[in-house]
What we know:
Largest sheet: 8 strands, antiparallel
Radius of gyration: 23 Å
Helix content: 10-25%
Strand order of the largest sheet: 1-2-3-4-5-11-16-15
Order of helices and strands: HHEEEEEEEEEEEEEEEEHEEH
CATH architecture of the largest domain: Distorted Sandwich
Distance between the termini: 32 Å
Structural class: mainly beta
Strand content: 35-45%
Oligomer: single chain
Shape: globular
Mean pLDDT: 90
CATH topology of the largest domain: Beta-galactosidase, Chain A, domain 5
Amino acid sequence: MLTTHITLLTSATMFAKVRPQLLPVAAVFAILSMPATAADAVKLTEGEKSVRVELNGQLFTQYHFKDVPRPYCYPVIGPGGVHMTRHAPMKKVENEDPDHPHHRGLWYAHGAVNGSDFWAEGAKSGKTVHVKFLELKSGDKVATLRSANKWVTIEGKTVCTDERTMRFHADRTIDLDITYIASEGEVVLGDTKEGSCSIRLAETMRLKPNKFNAGKPTGQIVLSTGVTGAQTWGKRAAWCDYYGPNEGKTVGVAIFDHPSNPKHPTWWHVRDYGLFSANPFGVHDFESKRAEPNLGDIKIEAGKSLTWKYRYYFHEGDEKQGNVAARYADWTQSGK
């Protein structure tokens, strides 16, 4: 910062010597008061086990990648500085239900990959293991995190790999592009409701309150199709929004399913207790438990790959106040 200011001052002084009538002293001080750089408005800082994501110097989220069952983001700080994700199991706080300990903040996972469970964290569950970062780039409006990962069974066998790109925007949106790579042979992404692009919301935002929040205002779930409440589970839609009371405010998060995604519009594994997932695989579970248990399987041939693109949009108010439909249209039509 000092070096930057010295450079600015030197340039300003030289300019003043040449054209003093164009650069009064007040202008020099105005230059000195400018931020050292705008390049770090969205800043990534790599640590030993996580990457810290800051917006204008304040924590937005932390990407945990080492010594974890799978990479995940926690906490996620939304509009007004509120915590959008449940603290459990990473942190014990009052008035939270500690159910489903595999629901860690904001994450991506799937419950059936070549027959192995990568959704839960049980004795027979596999892990998504971080291999390396391909890119860590801060920016004035967006920061980019690209990583390579491998999916390892409980027996230690790698069944596939992935490359994922997360873009953290200054307006508190997060893009997730994930590419499955059939690097070890054919990959079968099995038909199960247990997945995939997910977030576990703060307890006060739940559609159905926990015992600590009984009798208090609750949240709401809305699909792009107009379906609301508990009826949203297992339905298909281009986007889903989950909003509710949180730290004295009404805030929400929408997940957008990109039109280029396989099986768009996706099904929504969204629960009244705060689990919120886009899942294109669980046809058997979502479509009235059809007789064909493998109806929703997606196969990737050996050596091939398949990509899904999602966006998390954190906003104030309900889906109307947050202009969710317009924001989805802008995202899908902009070509970005």
